[in-house]
Amino acid sequence: MTSHVRVRPLARHDVPKLRDALAAGTVADATRRLFPRSLPSMLDWYDQLQLSREMSPFAIAINASLIGYCALRPPVYSGRELVIAIFDPRYHGKGIGTHAVREMCAFGFGTLKLQRIELGVYPTNQRAISCYVRCGFREEALLRKFVYHEGVWVDLTLMSLLRSQKGQEGDA
Amino acid sequence: MVGKKVRLRPIEPEDVPLLLRWINGSAALEWLQRRLPLTRRQEQAWAARAATDPQMPTFIIQTLRGADIGVLGLQLEAGRGVFGIAIHEPQYWARGFGQDAVEVLVNSAFQVLPLQRIELLVLPENARAIRCYEKAGFKREGLLRNYIYNRGKMQDMIIMSILHEEWKRTGAAR
Q1: Number of domains in chain B
Q2: ipTM higher than threshold 0.85
Q3: Which run of H or E residues covers position B35?
Q4: Does B168 touch chain A (CB under 8 A)?
């Protein structure tokens, strides 16, 4: 399955599909529910990203179709923060997320020479946590009442993968 | 903002020489995220921000007898404040001044700002600070690995927090 999957830099022509996916809210329960945004505002967001040295947005694509988004971005605490979403639930549970996380970590530790990649995940999202653990991430902290999600303040699990850990675990 | 042993006062332009002396020669630097010495201009820029930026309320800690002994403040993010403190005058260490300052700021912040939580990072070997934060109601949430390059190596930091609801139960009556 993952042999058809490409993780490549996000292109400007991906932005309309990204906007549609965010507006549809298919992954909002596992990520963040956002107000729908206009195409000009999303294109503006994309153009601003290109100016940032700390932002690396990627598309997860099968053939020509965009099925997900992932990025390394400025951290909440240290290193870079990894974010990922696969919009189309038909592609969940097929190892695509794990593949994309590994690709992003290889890029982060290789090209960007990072010391540390961190991420936040809802403690209830067991599927995502298993994926991150498979890729070598470890739980570091339970951040209490950390994010406003679906109308309430909820806890967030903080996980990280270190450069010095690379090769010891599942990300070899 | 006044406690049992200290008051917290705003930073004024005339505090720059004091801040410069502290940040380049303080005994507390051992426990802080170490930086290269700052120039007067850099410290002025920091003091100007700390004195005016509403996202980083910052204060000088003064004993009730009028001695300036350190700095503390918050960096505000959505729903949370990130706390930092340094008692730069070591003769005031381990005598309850820092403890009082932490409690006064936490209490004031939860009364004034719509915060869900106040959090902080502390070096694992800084046992005295950790005890102080625990007494003020902070709880350990975890260990951030390789958080910072400091003193020649990557170092971990403990993260602690106090929730608004915890403060309301125990601290509000203070």
Answers
A1: 1
A2: yes
A3: none
A4: no
